[in-house]
Specification:
2 helices; 18% helix; 6 strands; two-stranded antiparallel sheet; 4-stranded mixed sheet
Length: 95
Amino acid sequence: MEDHNLVKNTLDQIPQANSNAKRIVGLVKEGGRITGYQLSDNSIVEKQQAVNMAKQGQIAGVGIAHRGDTEYLKSIPDGSENNNLGNLPSVSSHS
């Protein structure tokens, strides 16, 4: 259980998700870097938009962390590797 808390400590914020919050089901990548996310309603949102949505409780199962000045989403550890963001399939943005 201790490493569970250690990982949570790397999160700056764990917003309370709304009852109708969406989940992230896919990653939009450009050149290997995540630039956006596909949500459970099949919509595609940019990375910063997803961070803002998560802060408002609109995305479940994620917390907010930062690297330098950049905020990003991170899975909240729940003991399962399958739903970690890094294990989600890559999708192509429909733009």
